[in-house]
Design goal:
The complex is a heterodimer of chains A (800) and B (370).
Chain A: E1 2-4, H1 5-11, H2 18-27, E2 31-37, E3 45-55, E4 63-68, E5 73-78, E6 88-92, E7 97-99, E8 106-108, E9 112-114, E10 117-119, E11 122-123, H3 126-129, E12 140-141, H4 151-155, E13 157-163, H5 174-185, E14 198-202, H6 203-206, E15 208-211, E16 219-226, H7 235-243, H8 251-263, E17 267-271, E18 279-284, E19 290-292, E20 298-300, E21 306-309, E22 314-317, E23 321-322, E24 335-341, H9 344-354, H10 359-364, H11 372-388, E25 391-394, E26 397-400, E27 408-412, H12 413-420, H13 426-435, E28 439-442, E29 447-451, H14 462-473, H15 494-508, E30 512-513, E31 519-520, H16 522-527, E32 539-540, E33 550-551, H17 556-567, E34 573-586, E35 589-603, H18 619-632, E36 638-641, E37 647-657, E38 660-668, H19 670-675, E39 684-690, H20 691-698, E40 714-723, H21 728-737, E41 741-750, E42 759-768, H22 777-795, E43 798-799
Parallel strand pairs in A: 14-25, 15-18, 30-34
Antiparallel strand pairs in A: 1-13, 2-13, 3-4, 3-6, 4-5, 6-11, 6-12, 7-8, 9-10, 16-24, 16-25, 16-26, 17-24, 18-21, 19-20, 21-22, 22-23, 27-29, 28-29, 31-33, 34-35, 35-39, 36-37, 37-38, 38-39, 40-42, 40-43, 41-42
Helix pairs in contact in A: 1-5, 5-13, 7-8, 8-11, 12-14, 21-22
Chain B: H1 5-23, H2 27-37, H3 43-50, H4 56-95, H5 114-127, E1 132-133, E2 139-141, H6 142-145, E3 166-167, E4 178-180, H7 186-194, E5 199-208, E6 220-230, H8 235-250, E7 256-261, E8 266-275, E9 292-301, H9 303-308, E10 317-323, H10 325-333, H11 340-343, H12 346-349
Parallel strand pairs in B: 1-5
Antiparallel strand pairs in B: 2-4, 5-6, 6-10, 7-8, 8-9, 9-10
Classes of the chains: A alpha+beta (800), B alpha+beta (370).
Chain lengths: 800, 370
């Protein structure tokens, strides 16, 4: 909200600079910034007094106006009809920059001759000054405007731009802000005048008001003013509204807006003469009922909405927007003024359902205090009488259905210490609360009974008062203290530990961590075969875009997508991974959130280097990554040839640890690559690791140091020819089962003319080792012979 | 005195040895020289062998003289051998010279995502103060995300949390609405329901907002939430703990400022700012001339929240706080677009190479570019 400093100062005297004020307000919870307005752009424009008027000799519609501009008198040509002697007006000298009312552009004013008379300057309308739309006449300032003063000096102000939190509807009012300023500066608020004279018959005899939905309209007050005259508001009122960012309409509508800004209480003025049977019904809408609201929209009403109606039709959406059928117009002479409290939840629902947020609905939905209604009603009635003339009917209507009121809260001073950690005396507490408008009565030696001021609706419990004390006492004045309580028992979070370890390991092998959106698209999920119609992924009912509609039930699509996006600028080598959650629907319950690690390798395997032979990524790069990270986690993985969706049918393996499937690694199927616009000419390797499956296998391992022998071992290279169908892992397993063999590592694979078709040669380096003694050649030879026999017997392998 | 003929011979041998020695220019020639004079059938060796046929007196004189000459030659040999070896090695090494400006062979290592780095740094600081790291579900019940946190349905405070609703199989069941959590705060409620005080937890996690995305707004981002509940916890503890956190993560010299704010699940509520780590409070572009940067929301846990999870608010008090790692990273590194974090553009991610995001604290050069 825009709160002009000049307006605040009407209620509370403060010596603080605008900047200090904004800072102090921010510290007590009302985020504020200052903006100086009307500071520049008005060179050569000043306040002038009209001292004489003469008919233009050559034109009936033009006047020659003589103006006092302080140090000189000047006569200019003017065409406006609302010009009168003695008025204060705005005069622009040649050289001033004004807005051309025809095209809205800034133009520099020049001396002109109008119908033979030279006019060195002009009297300005609001539109020419950029102060409003009105161009029907010139702008008339208040009588007190200082003749000759530059317009900037006269208009300049500082506006405090506030961002009130939703719990404080009172901060959506100038008085509400003034109360804070008073508390901060130890000042006092001087409340505005609201007395008026009542004439004629009682309001009860002139209107019938019935609240038929008291649950939604806890309080409804109204006053009636007849014989008023609709006209533009005086300048002081227009100026305030302007500075607060509101348009001026006419004196009656302006008063309702002004008092709303002043008190935070929305008001509505009905044209009394248009109310059928002089009746107001506060009731629920009816099916099929419609209303054209002030913004020109035809709206359908429902029983969920609270409506203001007369005897035959809806005339307003309670607390949201008025109806066009009872709008104040130039012909209005009598006004029924409404000031009410409507149910916050209902107003919010109606505004949300109709997609309109108004100044009124914003205040009502924040639950304004019902006491406010009559204060604001009387203030507005006072102003209408002052500005519009007319007679106020005797009394007001006040239908109060609030039942028991909760306007007192007791405060035990011990609670202040318990919550804030400071000792505050009862006297000091009373002082702070009183400065905020609370009324304190002593209850006993340690507590007080506090009456909540009529403008506050956020105080319900003792701790709310504690906050009031804290913020005015100053958060910065509360000491800092270290936690001295007992440290709670440590609770290991194994999944988190594992996830973070996997991240470290994968980044350690050169893969870049990425974090993508949990929401993804149908296309991405179906491209990685994760859109199962029988078990559809969860979706949000209000997606921002189709790209983020479904909760991913697979991470592979996102990772491939990330690769695609990067291939726009990467051309050599990419390795990236994501450790994150996937969401598996789980019946009536929340989805199960599964932790996954998915990585992709693309491009050159060795990195661009002068020193290495260039080689493309293939299956074995992905496998190598998994072998490395699982070994670091203390487990030897096993790989089993497999076919799986999205993977190359011959270049894919399931990954097992201790016979439990923990993941998959393979080259991505060319069709899938095409779906992600990745070239299928070269291999792209993808792996998925299911951390939920992995965790129980790696947690709580009982690791023990293994002593190593001092006896030297022996190394032998064994070239073995076998059918290509025999997996290398099988040969390795057979070799390693021999009790003298520590490890067998394939370091050469050969298929070609030197072996029979359908066979291949694998060369193993075998490490023979005895823990008991030094191996001699005979023993090793014997062991090798045993191994070869076993190989031949089990898989038909032969030494080459 | 007449020289013994053998001594004359010796003299001749030594002279020729000296002359030839001068011609020696490499280790091979030196070896030939050694063989010719000092080898098993070298001239000096042979001469010594003839001594046995001499009279003892002669043998003694000639022997001494010959041995002296031999030692002198051997000494020369060793000396020359050393210098030759050194110069030859220098020559060889010079020939092995390489271009050290060619790049090294690639060793794979990639940085972690900056968010991961920030989250770790923040969590570690709290863990060292006795906090437990806890996580909770991304997909939540409305009850945990809002109701238990004192944000009832149709409350205007819900405007602070625009929500993605999950299209669930029973949308008619209005009491059980599923959503993507709008903050990590529901984990507070879950932790308190699960265990009794004392509680000190730090909760990192992904959160979601139904919000138009631009350079400063994301529909998904990270939050780190903290909660402390015990007997005797006060606002002073809140201040002390968060101040300590700031000193650990942002540097010992940082100052903090607390102002009042509103979050429905705390009372009193606060925001914490730190003095700008770029200009140190003088006002600059990063802090928008304010000198202060708001980095956290906090407050004393609302009694309604404590009651909701079955704690007695007259016995237990607590404080909660929350911060956004993306915002912290943006401020620290001058990142001007929050969307970069989930763009996963390698040109962005590869820049965050520091082992620890907050590695150097209070170092002006570190923030030089900001």
């Amino acid at each position: 909200m825009k709160v002009p400093i000049s307006w605040i100062r009407e209620y509370v005297d403060t010596q603080l600079s605008p900047k200090q004020l904004a800072h102090s307000l921010t510290m007590v919870g009302l985020e504020s910034q200052t903006e100086t307005i009307f500071d520049d752009g008005w060179d050569n424009i000043c306040v002038a007094k009209v001292t004489g008027l003469q008919q233009h000799p050559n034109a009936d519609r033009l006047t020659l106006a003589t103006l006092d501009i302080g140090n000189e008198n000047i006569t200019v040509v003017c065409g406006a009809k609302n010009l009168l002697e003695g008025q204060r007006v705005v005069f622009a000298k040649p050289g001033a920059r004004l807005i051309d009312p025809e095209n809205g552009r800034h133009e520099v004013l020049k001396v002109v001759r109008i119908r033979g008379i030279e006019s060195a300057g002009m009297i300005c309308s609001k539109r020419e000054l950029g102060l409003g739309e009105d161009h029907t006449g010139i702008l008339i300032l208040d009588k007190g405007a200082p003749t000759g003063a530059p317009l900037s000096d006269y208009m300049r102000d500082v506006v405090i731009e506030t961002e009130p939190t939703t719990n404080r509807p009172d901060w959506l009012s100038v008085l509400g802000v003034a109360h804070e300023v008073a508390a901060i500066t130890k000042g006092e608020v001087c409340e505005p005048e609201s007395n008026y004279l009542e004439h004629g018959p009682a309001i009860q005899d002139r209107v019938i008001i019935r609240v038929e939905a008291p649950d939604l309209s806890p309080r409804y007050t109204a006053s009636l003013i007849t014989g008023i005259k609709i006209r533009p508001s005086p300048w002081w009122l227009q100026e305030r509204l302007l500075k607060a960012g509101q348009k001026s309409i006419n004196n009656i509508v302006d008063v309702t807006n002004y008092v709303m800004l002043e008190y935070g209480q929305p008001l509505h003025a009905f044209d009394y003469d248009l109310l059928e049977q002089s009746t107001i019904l506060v009731r629920r809408g009816r099916f099929g009922e419609t209303i054209t609201t002030l913004d020109g929209e035809l709206r359908e009403l429902t029983p969920e909405m609270l409506v203001i109606a007369d005897a035959s039709r809806a005339i307003g959406l309670a607390g949201v927007i008025g109806g066009a059928n009872t709008e104040i117009t130039e012909g209005t002479t009598s006004v029924l003024l409404e000031s009410a409290k409507f149910d916050a939840v209902n107003i919010r629902r109606t505004a949300t359902a109709l997609k309109i947020r108004t100044e009124a609905s914003t205040r009502f939905e924040r639950n304004i205090n019902g006491d406010l209604a009559s204060f604001a009603l009387m203030r507005a009635t006072h102003l209408i009488q002052e500005l519009g003339g007319g007679q106020v009917a005797q009394g007001i209507i006040d239908l109060d259905n609030r039942g028991s009121r909760h306007d007192k809260v007791s405060l035990n001073i011990k609670r202040v210490e318990d919550v804030l950690g400071i000792r505050l005396s009862l006297k000091k507490a009373k002082g702070i609360l009183s400065s905020l408008g609370f009324i304190c009565e002593a209850a006993d030696s340690k507590s007080i009974l506090v009456t909540i001021p009529y403008w506050r609706s956020d105080i319900r419990i003792q701790d709310d008062l504690v906050e009031e004390l804290a913020r005015i006492y100053g958060y910065d004045n509360i000491p800092t203290r270290s936690l001295s309580q007992e440290i709670p028992t440590h609770q290991p979070q194994l999944m988190r530990t594992l996830s973070e370890q996997i991240k470290d390991l994968l980044s350690g092998v050169g893969m870049q961590e990425t974090i993508s959106y949990s929401l993804t698209s149908y296309e991405v999920l179906s491209s990685v075969d994760s859109f199962d119609l029988k078990n559809e992924p969860l979706q949000v009912s209000n997606p921002m875009t189709p790209e983020r509609q479904y909760l991913r039930n697979s991470l592979s699509g996102n990772v491939l997508n990330t690769l695609t996006n990067n291939l726009r600028h990467e051309e050599f080598s990419v390795g990236l991974f994501e450790v994150g959650r996937i969401y598996i629907p789980h019946g009536d319950d929340l989805p199960s959130e599964h932790h996954m690690a998915v990585g992709v390798l693309w491009g050159n395997a060795t990195g661009l280097s002068w020193a290495e032979d260039s080689r493309r990524i293939d299956f074995y790069d992905g496998k190598g990554v998994l072998e490395t990270i699982f070994r670091m986690l203390g487990k030897e993985p096993h790989f089993q040839q497999a076919e799986a969706p999205i993977f190359h049918p011959g270049r894919t393996a399931l990954v097992f640890i201790d016979d439990v499937k923990v993941g998959i690694v393979g080259e991505v199927h060319p069709e899938v690559l095409e779906a992600f616009h990745i070239s299928s000419e070269e291999a792209t390797v993808l792996f998925e690791v299911d951390l939920e499956a992995l965790l129980p296998l790696v947690e709580g391992q009982d690791f023990r140091f293994t002593p190593f022998t001092r006896f030297p071992g022996a190394y032998r290279d064994l070239a073995l020819v076998s059918n290509t169908e025999v997996p290398a892992a099988k040969l390795k397993e057979i070799i390693e089962t021999h009790n003298l063999v520590q490890t067998a590592t394939v370091f050469d694979v050969y298929t070609g003319s030197k072996v029979t078709k359908g066979e291949r040669s694998l060369t193993f380096r075998v490490h023979f080792q005895s823990l008991k003694d030094t191996l001699n050649t005979e023993t090793v030879n014997k062991a090798q012979e045993e191994i070869l026999q076993k190989l031949e017997k089990e898989v038909g392998g032969q030494q080459r | 005195m007449v020289l013994h003929p053998l001594l004359i011979r010796l003299h001749g041998i030594v002279e020729s040895a000296k002359q030839e020695f001068e011609q020696v220019s490499d280790t091979d020639a030196l070896e030939l020289w050694r063989v010719a004079y000092l080898g098993r059938s070298g001239k000096i060796t042979l001469l010594l062998r003839t001594l046995s046929s001499l009279e003892p007196d002669e043998r003694r004189i000639v022997g001494e003289e010959t041995n002296r000459a031999k030692v002198a030659l051997e000494h020369r040999l060793e000396e020359r051998r050393e210098t030759l070896k050194a110069s030859e090695m220098a020559l060889n090494l010079a020939a092995d010279r390489i271009d050290v400006t060619l790049p090294g062979r690639p060793v794979a290592l990639a940085p972690l995502h900056p968010i991961t780095q920030v989250v770790r740094e923040v969590c570690d600081a709290f863990v060292s103060m006795g906090f437990n790291v806890v996580e909770g579900p991304d997909v939540e019940w409305e009850y945990y995300n809002f109701d238990l946190l004192n944000i009832p349905r149709d409350h205007p405070a819900r405007d602070m949390f625009d929500t993605f609703w999950v299209d669930w199989n029973d949308p008619t069941d209005q009491e059980r609405r599923m959503l993507l959590r709008t903050h990590t705060s529901p984990v507070q409620a879950r932790v308190m329901q699960r265990q009794d005080p004392p509680i000190r937890v730090i909760v990192p996690g992904q959160v979601y907002r139904y919000e138009a995305v631009d350079a400063t707004h994301e529909s998904q981002f990270t939050q780190i939430e903290g909660l402390v509940v015990d007997k005797g916890i006060t606002f002073a503890h809140l201040k002390g703990t968060l101040y300590e956190f700031v000193r650990r993560v942002f540097g010992q010299e940082r100052r903090v400022r607390f102002n009042c704010s509103y979050f429905p699940f705390v009372e009193p509520g606060a925001e914490m700012s730190i003095d700008c780590f770029v200009c140190r409070g003088d006002g600059c572009r990063v802090c928008k001339q304010a000198g202060w940067i708001e980095i956290m929301g906090a407050g004393m846990v609302h009694p309604t929240v404590l009651e909701g999870v079955g704690y007695d608010p007259s016995v237990y008090t607590g404080f909660a706080f929350g911060m956004g790692p993306e915002r912290i990273a943006m401020l620290k590194y001058g990142i001007d677009d929050i969307r970069l974090f989930r763009s996963n553009d390698l040109r962005f991610l590869r820049q965050f190479r520091l082992a620890e995001v907050f590695g150097k604290k209070d170092s002006p050069s570190f923030f030089g570019g900001a």
